[in-house]
Amino acid sequence: MPHPIMFSDDDPFLARIREMALAFPTATEQVAHGRPTFRCPKMFGMYGGGEKNIEKGVPGRRFDQSILFVADPAEREALLADERFFLPAYVGAFGWVGLILDDDTDWTEVGELLDASFREVAPKRTIAELDAHNRHDP
């Protein structure tokens, strides 16, 4: 049985995430587990998720308007100490962190987090392509 779709294509936060994530070289979007994921070919971002359940039997909170990303290992603990971030279910054990999106979201920060996540998983030649493109931007 396929997962139910847990997002709306007309979500303005998703539109911004799509624009940012799909700007990376070779980036594609694929729906997995009912949510948009962004890949290069490995997954570097997912729109929406839930908090890891710390206490057995108590469901974790769900954040449909959030971005999940692979955190820079040196910054992971500091990010999780900030109340805007959460340890996501299923992927948190593999270095992923979630950021809750709202009207006060700093989109420059989101772009930096997606860039760092992309660099954690992208092939070296794709990162070189990104860096070459960035050197030529004004």
From TrEMBL:
SUPFAM superfamilies: YjbR-like. One of its GO terms (molecular function) is transferase activity. It holds the Pfam family YjbR. The keyword Metal-binding does not apply. Keywords: Transferase. This is Phosphoribosylglycinamide formyltransferase. It comes from Gordonia crocea.
